[in-house]
Amino acid sequence: MSRATGCVEFLQWALPRLGLAWPGFRRVHRQVCRRIGARLRTLRLPGPAAYRTYLDAHPEEWAILDSACRISISRLARDRSVFELLAGIVFPTLAEQALARGAAELRCWSAGCASGEEPYSLSILWRLELAPRFPGLRLSVVATDVDGDLVGRARIARYRRSSLREVPPAWIEAAFVRSGDSFALRAEYREGVELRCEDIRDRVPEGPFDLILCRNVAFTYFEARLQRSTLERILSVLRPGGVLVIGLKERLPEGATGVAGWVPHLGIYRRAADREPLEFRAADRGDVARRAALACM
Length: 297
Prior knowledge:
The longest helix is centred in the N-terminal third of the chain and has 21 residues, at 80-100. This protein folds into 2 domains: 3-68; 80-270, Vaccinia Virus protein VP39 (Rossmann fold, 3-Layer(aba) Sandwich), CATH 3.40.50. The protein has helices spanning 3-14, 22-25, 29-43, 48-57, 61-68, 80-100, 117-130, 148-156, 169-175, 218-221, 224-236; strands at residues 105-111, 138-145, 158-160, 176-179, 182-185, 193-197, 209-213, 238-245, 260-263, 268-270. The protein has 297 residues and is an alpha/beta fold. The protein has a 7-stranded mixed beta sheet, sandwiched between helices.
């Protein structure tokens, strides 16, 4: 058996025990296998089979394996068509709803924020495109990610040019200061963005939120049961009339209720304005609890 084949078989065994799904990892498994290979060298283990035995004897190792399975591929204004729709339809609709109920704040949650690319894109979009139209309304963004190192990088808010390739030139000129090969986000665009190290599998921020973005995380990498419980958690803090955005290639779990497609080909869903608050049911934790010990360290 080749080393690559051994790692794939190992992942197909291990991922369900972490509440994760092999199909979501099929295209990115080499990245995970490289991390696992490095861990095997640290532990001086000969291969994945030995690692399985090690995991049985050392349950705390599951948290380390879980961290090795985190995938973060992000850019500012990623999927530009989505941000164009946010600017043209979604934010104006939500802003009008907020003003109609007398609110002074539009609340957003970016789940799986990586190094801050998504929440800062929302901040730039709002300040440059929407704030002049809605002067009585401010934007606040709660941004969460399970990886403490990525959250630390988000607080620095410095990016390579490759991370800005979908950003309109006018945004770059207004919101960034170039320093060598990197671009630092100006301080005013960090205002209103709260960064937290949190695992969406364990908790959600206190709502309600007008807009929630959970793109290329839960509905790509989580197994079906965990997808359903995660969606329940998300909808429990999404305001009636609010909007949920998922990844372009993602689909909500089969039989999902509580939101309807608004622009479904762009992953944009809306919660009915007249829905009663959803009853929150705790996730079926199963073996997922094994990873908790080192979350956000």
